Batch of 2 targets.
Target 1
Amino acid sequence: MTEPFGAYVHLPYCPYKCHYCDFNAYRLPRAEGARADMAQAIASEIAQAPGLDASRRVTSIFFGGGTPSLFRPGEIRAIIEALRSRYDVSSAAEVTLECNPGTVDLSSLRALRRAGVNRLSIGAQSFSAETLRRIGRLHTPEETRDAVRAARAAGFNNISLDVIYGLPGEAPEDSLRSVQEAISLGIEHLSAYALELESGTLFGRLAARGELPLPQEEDVVRAGDLVAQACERAGLARYEVSNFARSGRRARHNMLYWHQGSYRGFGPGAHSHLFGRRFWNVSPPGEYLRRVAAGGEAVEDEEVLSPTAQMGEWVYLRLRLSEGFSLASFARRFGRPLDAAYPGVRETLCAQGLLEAVPLWVRPTPKGRWLLHRVAEPFLA
Ligand code: SF4
């Protein structure tokens, strides 16, 4: 059996910069041809990438960003074709494209579908027009609804929406209303993240000065619980801390990350994990374009995880999944029992109510899911 293998493509341009955004994303340059140049450079990077052994087959492709839907469908198609020329891409591969409301319409979505994209991840973030304005997003809730309707009409049957809760000025009930609106669109998958404040963002700076009306921590926890309950009631089962899906609709590409699988990233700042070795590309688009044009490596640096670090990371990533992991799977992977690798840790976390006290299995409790960093700490130390 071939092991899953993913390709990640980073398209770094956005029409604007959201107030909370810490991604490797930049305003689309004014220069005509900026998108075409980037798509062309990524296709060249793919063409120059080392091959994989014959047993590896690409089972998922993910276009992230940035706002990949700012790129023309023909540019996305050219990148998919470059991947198909370089690698053995499964005909059943999940091909996801992140898009933002206001940047797609029926005609572009039909063209994307024809290009081979079969899953959309739409950045809704909120269904309150006022909240969207407050967080610096220049689309409306109606544009999100239009995007989902157009995607259905274009033949997409696998649609995910992203929402953020714990936003400034929002009560838990506001977050719940947004998620209920998202669910009412009949989507197959929902990602719901609590707002994170990063120091390099406008929100990070405002928060540091005490000028951001952030909800209290207990309200964020309550919002997260309300969101999860609404999803579960609607048949979207929680399968990861922040992700909910209908049966058979888990994000296959993201499951690869949580299973510590192998993937190759292309584009500015894209990360790769190839059989225990991690490396990443230079982040600024200009430098990336220069390096690829000069026929050089876009890779900036690499890291090889020690066996201990790999083991800790494996545990942490599995703990993010609702099913956790079996003691047998740990022993199979690392050649020794979990309790021998981390003496006393499981017992202590069970006693603290952070891990479920079930035989043969390791799974966080609802409290442990909220305090995942505390659960993971002794494994990552
Ligand atoms: S659309 Fe996404 S990537 Fe672009 S600025 Fe906003 S949050 Fe960042």
Target 2
Amino acid sequence: MQADPCPPAAEVRVLDQVLQRQQPGLEIRGYSPRLATTMFGLPSLKHWCVWIDPNPEPVDRWSLRWRRGVDSALRQWSQLLPITLVENPDRAQIRVRRQRPRRRRTSTGWRASNGRSILQLVELTRDGQRWREPLVEVLVSPELRAQVLEATALHELGHAFGLWGHSDQSSDALAVHQGSKPVLQPTLRDKQTLQWVRQQSNRFGLISED
Ligand SMILES: [Zn+2]
């Protein structure tokens, strides 16, 4: 029998940590210098457990469309990194919710967004062992055109998998603003940047006792 790749979490402790600026490195891949990091290194895991808001009963066509958009976006990223879908949020490091993000106050008024990703760092117990993990709440609004919804999910999931910054090129999935044509696939620059993130050592994962 294979070990459960996503055992449920217990004794969760939220760490008082925020994203911080990266020290400039020598190796630049894609838009890697634009990414934020944490005191434990880039918030990336070798393997991710993802939970997606289930469809409410009775299932309506809006929630079906939402789910289809999120599934398509997740399928794109799953070609680049190992992901297990789970049915219980306790088992997940990434939780995707069908929820419109709250408007944010800016200097010129209020700004609405289609999606948002919120990062926390936690220490928790899985299978009797202590782990340090990123825990990401991904909000994707249900009130979007199908392609915008899919592009929003792709962008927000990119943050969740460790791309905590924005590309300066509008054709990339992680561009600051969506262009007129929604980006439905990670570009080469997105892929190179994610690959770079996954090659960096960090202090996430199993916490050793010594
Ligand atoms: Zn973003």
